[in-house]
C-alpha cells in the first residue's frame, strides 16, 4: 500500500467526519429551537415546577403591631403525583397531575382565646386549580380565592381547643414537585407526609430530605416522611423521571459516529491485508456514505416514527447498504459476513449504548480493548516493511536476528542445499 493511498483514505475519513459534525450540529439546533418555543407552550399549558409551602400561622402580640408564629401540633399531608409525558417536537416533557391534601391542627395552650392569622400560598401564582376546598373542623368555608395572593383567614381558637385547617386542590406541574414542611419558619411538629406516584423510577432533588419509608404500589411508589419535632430548612421533593428525548439522542449518536467509522475502517483494512484484497479509497468512500445514511435516516425519522422504530429502520438500511456494496464490489473472496458483524458491533451496538444511561463509556472501552487485542494477534506476523514497499533494515553484525528473519535465512539455505 502506497503512502498516497493512506492519505486518500484519511481524506475520506475526514470528509465523513465533517458531514457528521454538520448533521449533528443541525440536529442539535433543530432540537434546541423547538425546545425553546414548544417548551414555553408546555409551561403555559401545564405550568412549571411546583413548590408548595406549609401555611403560615401567627398571632398578634398584645400591645403592639408585632406577631409571633404559631406552629401546628400536627401536619398531615397527602400528595398524589400522576406522571404524563408530553411530546412536543423532538423532546418529551415530564408533565404531571398533582392532587394535594393538607391538614394542620392548631391547639391553644394559653388561658385566653387566640385569633390565629393563617396565610396559605399556592405553589404557582398563575396556576390553575381544580377541586379546591378550604375546610375548618371538617366544614367547608367559602372564601374569595386569588392564586396570586393566596388565602388569608383569621381562626379563633379557645383555650385548650383544637382546630383543624384543611386545604385541598388539584393542579398540574412540570419536572419536579417540592414541599416546604416548615413553611416560612424552621420548625415543624408531628409531620406525616406521604407521596403516591404512578412511576417507580423515583429520584429526589439535591439537598432534599430523604423519605423514611418506600413501598411499591402497583406501577408506582408510596413515599413517607415522618418526624416528631423537626427543625430544618430542607425541602421534601420528588423529581419526575425523564423520557428519552429523540433530538439530543440523535445528535449525540451522530457526533460519536467518527469513532465507529474509525474502528470499521481498521477492520476492513486488516481483512484486505490478510486476504490480499485490494481496497481502493473509493470503496472506503462508499462505505463511509453507508454509515452516514444511518445517522441521516435516524435524525429525520424520529420526527415521525417512535425512537426505537427509527433506530431499527436506520440500522437495517445501513447494514444492507454497506455489506451489499462490499460483497458486490470486492467479490466473493471478501468475507462480507465478517464485515457485517463488524458493522453491527461498531455502529449499531455502540450507537445503541446511548439508549442505556451510563453504559456508553463502558461499551466503547470494552470494544476498543477487544479490537486492539484481535488486531494485534492477527497482524503480529505481517512484514510491514514489505507491505509498505520499504527495504527491511539489516541486523548489525553479531546481533541476533529476529525470528522471522532467521526462518527466511534457514529456508534459503535448505533451498540451496537441495539445488
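Q: What amino acid sequence fits the structure above?
A:
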Amino acid at each position: 500500500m502506497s503512502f498516497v493511498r493512506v492519505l486518500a483514505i484519511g481524506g475520506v475519513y475526514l470528509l465523513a467526519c465533517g458531514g457528521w459534525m454538520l448533521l449533528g450540529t443541525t440536529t442539535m439546533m433543530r432540537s434546541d429551537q423547538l425546545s425553546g418555543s414548544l417548551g414555553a407552550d408546555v409551561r403555559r399549558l401545564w405550568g412549571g415546577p411546583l413548590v408548595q409551602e406549609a401555611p403560615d400561622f401567627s398571632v398578634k402580640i398584645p400591645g403592639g403591631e408585632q406577631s409571633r408564629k404559631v406552629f401546628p401540633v400536627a401536619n398531615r399531608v397527602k400528595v398524589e403525583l400522576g406522571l404524563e409525558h408530553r411530546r412536543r417536537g423532538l423532546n418529551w416533557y415530564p408533565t404531571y397531575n398533582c392532587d394535594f391534601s393538607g391538614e394542620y391542627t392548631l391547639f391553644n395552650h394559653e388561658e385566653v382565646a387566640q385569633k390565629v392569622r393563617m396565610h396559605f400560598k399556592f405553589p404557582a401564582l398563575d396556576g390553575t386549580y381544580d377541586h379546591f376546598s378550604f375546610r375548618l373542623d371538617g366544614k367547608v368555608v367559602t372564601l374569595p380565592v386569588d392564586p396570586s395572593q393566596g388565602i388569608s383567614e383569621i381562626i379563633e381558637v379557645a383555650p385548650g381547643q383544637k382546630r383543624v385547617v384543611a386545604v385541598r386542590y388539584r393542579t398540574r406541574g412540570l419536572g419536579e414537585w417540592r414541599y416546604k414542611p416548615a413553611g416560612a419558619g424552621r420548625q415543624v411538629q408531628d409531620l406525616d407526609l406521604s407521596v403516591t406516584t404512578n412511576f417507580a423510577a423515583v429520584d429526589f432533588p439535591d439537598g432534599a430530605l430523604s423519605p423514611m419509608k418506600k413501598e411499591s404500589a402497583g406501577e408506582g411508589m408510596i413515599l413517607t416522611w415522618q418526624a416528631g419535632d423537626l427543625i430544618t430548612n430542607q425541602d421534601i421533593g420528588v423529581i419526575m423521571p425523564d423520557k428519552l428525548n429523540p433530538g439530543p439522542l440523535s445528535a449525540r449518536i451522530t457526533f460519536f459516529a467518527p469513532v465507529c467509522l474509525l474502528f470499521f475502517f481498521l477492520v476492513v483494512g486488516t481483512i484486505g491485508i490478510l486476504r490480499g484484497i485490494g481496497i481502493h479509497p473509493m470503496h472506503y468512500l462508499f462505505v463511509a456514505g453507508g454509515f452516514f445514511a444511518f445517522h441521516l435516516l435516524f435524525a429525520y425519522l424520529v420526527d415521525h416514527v417512535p425512537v426505537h422504530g427509527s433506530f431499527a429502520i436506520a440500522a437495517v438500511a445501513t447494514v444492507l447498504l454497506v455489506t451489499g456494496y462490499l460483497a458486490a464490489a470486492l467479490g466473493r473472496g471478501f468475507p462480507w459476513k465478517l464485515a457485517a458483524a463488524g458493522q453491527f458491533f461498531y455502529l449499531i451496538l455502540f450507537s445503541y449504548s446511548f439508549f442505556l444511561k451510563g453504559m456508553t463509556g463502558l461499551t466503547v472501552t470494552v470494544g476498543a480493548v477487544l479490537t486492539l487485542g484481535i488486531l494485534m494477534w492477527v497482524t503480529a506476523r505481517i512484514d510491514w516493511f514489505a507491505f509498505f514497499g520499504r527495504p527491511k533494515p539489516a541486523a548489525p553484525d553479531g546481533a541476533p536476528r529476529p525470528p522471522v528473519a532467521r526462518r527466511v535465512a534457514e529456508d534459503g539455505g535448505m533451498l540451496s542445499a537441495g539445488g
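Q: And what stands out in the fold?
A: The radius of gyration is 35 Å.
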